[in-house]
Amino acid sequence: MRHYIEETGLPFDILVDESRAVVKAYGVWHALGLAAWNIAKPAVFLIDRSGGIHYSFVADKQQEFPSHDQLMNAIESMFNVQ
After folding, report:
1. Which of 15, 30, 55, 72 sits at a 20 to 30 Å CA gap from 48?
2. Cα separation of 66 and 52, whole Å?
3. Which residues sit opposite 5 in a β-bridge?
4. Distance between CA 9 and CA 4 in Å, rounded?
5. In a 3-state reduction of DSSP, which class is residue 38?
C-alpha cells in the first residue's frame, strides 16, 4: 500500500482497515452477499478535520457509486465554495 501511495502522490491519507473495524463502525461492512463476502459496500464519506461527516453515500450494490457531479457538489458545499 505504501508503494501505491508514494507512486500516485495522493494528497490525502489512505486507511488500510485489515481488521474491518472501521467499515463495521461506519455500517458499510458486507459480511455475506451473492458476489463476495467480508468486503465493504461502496461508500464515500467526506469528513472534515474535526471528524464531522459532511456527506455520505453507501451503496446497496457493488456497482453503485455517486456521480462526479454529486461528489463535486458535496465538496463545494463542504467548503462553501461559491
Report:
1. 30
2. 20
3. none
4. 8
5. strand
